[in-house]
UniProtKB/TrEMBL annotation:
GO terms for biological process: protein export from nucleus; protein import into nucleus. SUPFAM superfamilies: ARM repeat (SSF48371). Transmembrane segments: none annotated. This is Importin N-terminal domain-containing protein. InterPro entries: ARM-like, ARM-type_fold. It comes from Escallonia herrerae. Residues 408-420 have a biased composition (Basic residues).
Amino acid sequence: MTDCKTLGVYSEHRIKLHGNSPNCSVPQCHPQPRRRAVVRTATDALDRLSLLPSFPFSLLHIATGGENQGQKVAAAAYLKNFARRNIGNDPAVKVGREFRDALVCALLQVESAVLNVLVEVFRVIVAAEFVKENSWPELVPELRSVIGESNLINKGGNSEWKTINTLTVLHSLIRPFQYFLNPKIAKEPVPPQLQLIAQEILVPLLAVFHNCVEKALSTQNKEEGDNEKIILLVCKCLFFAVRSHMPSALAPVLPSFCSDLLRILHSVRLDGQDTLEDGHMLRLKTGKRCLLIFCSLVTRHRTFSDKLMPDIINCVSEVVKHSGNVGNLNFLSERVVSLAFDVISRVLETGPGWRLVSAHFSSLLDSAIFPALVMNEKDIAEWEEDADEYIRKNLPSDLGPPVMAVSSKHKKGEKNKPKGRSSMGELLVLPFLSKFIILTDINISSTKVITDYYGVLMAYGSLLDVRKSHFLSEQKPGNTATLIRTRVLPLYKVSPCQPYLVASANWVIGELASCIPHEMSADIYSSLLRALTMPDMGDISCYPVRVSAAGAIAGLVENDYLPPEWLPLLQVVVGRVTNEYEETSIMLDLLGTLVEAGNEDIVPHIPHIITLLVGAISEYIPSDPDPWPQMVERGFAAVSVMAQCWEASMPQEVAQNESSEMWLSGGATIAGAFSDLLQQAWIKPAKLM
């Protein structure tokens, strides 16, 4: 038997050594080297003992016996690490039946703190032997037996098996089958192990699940912890069972099971009141799991779920209506509402089910989806107080251009656009959005028009999300051109400008970079240049407008959507170089992107742009060069990159013969600019010393 004292010394001193003791904030009088020596000695002793055949049994014995909770958890953790090191790496190493039986017996009885650690050992063995080798044939029938005899299911006897523990073991047993075991197979059959689990355990367990749901729904607003845990664990098991596969035994019972799931969802409280007490927290987690199951059924198993679709849509439509109250919901309630939107999205994406949604969709857009996108008075106040922070929270994080050293560009046609998508966007979403009038000089004073149109732009952005529907990016070029010309570009000409609308419009243009017709180039770049130079409006910062415009321009040029004229764009970008490091950094990144994308079209302008950039940098070179401001260092790097681009573009015969007036003149200009910059940077500070 492993020396319990050795393990106790090991665990106790590991805690103290790593500062996890209750008094870790108080300086300890015991020297650290002594503790390390004690831990090292205990570790060496355990390593020697680990060579004995009885070692895992000894750890299991310590983990399940005695009163020292810390020692039990430490033994379970050591056994977990021991199993990970020794099981599954060598096919010749097998776990004996005696230890497997002892482990399962322990799992069914231990307290939750030990169970949560010890179940990891079970998962290692299951992955190595039950999943890969399809051995351990007695596991499924024996697990079915103990579930039926466990304390909360067979209440007539004094069972030693804990129902929560048995379902936790079942959950770990099914867990590996949530994914395809061999993704290279086009249509992987349901693994026989999962078929057996479904037939022998899951289907019979659904009767227990139904009774638990009945009990849960009959006790109004009084969720019982153990009953809620059973419901949640069964839902987790069923989610793993159908996430990728559909066991044949489950298909016939799906309607009754989904009916119980829908009843659970209807019972979830999303009214903004405090719902974080233990009972309803479990109910919320179960509601989340119900929606995950529906997502899997809609995405993977439409053959079986189509008949259930009307009821599913009715239910999730009620859930998403709570999005208007999202500001008052806790994090888990927000997740439930978000997953309800995901279910609707999956229905829209995966074929004919959109017709089932259409009856609800208009009311959903009006009552739930669109209000969630609209900028309210609180949003406007946040923008005016700190526009930078607002844009970071509410627009995508990739508003700025990529770094200067861009190594590759995304070409048109490189994206693998999915084919055969539903036309839901054309038939319902875009017509709905078109009913909102665009902002003009006439209605500029209407707060409702402004906030509604902010929601329209957010909705366009949602339709562009590559993880969702691609509706806008898959439109015909003519349709895209019409949408941008009539619904986006007019915003840039409204006076006074609305910064958050223009920033959102920049984002939409940037996302549509790969599918904007080239004949719109002049209008597109004219609008973005107007945004790129937008000054702050009193106390309202337009920094997010300028940054999002820079991001949109970078996206356009990376998709070979080049400006009709390079010089005005380059001049504007260099003109934005100031002592504000963050914005200057973004502008210099954009300048690098433009230089790389423009190639030979940029070269004739490089001398002039270097001169402008040197002038901008020189204004901010301090008399004391130690240290230089970061923007000055970035400016030097940008000048160097452009000079290298000039040199690399010079024809070989010109370099040899020095006969081209343009190259000679340009080279002289660049050399003069460098000379001026170096005088500012080094000679002037030296004179002051």
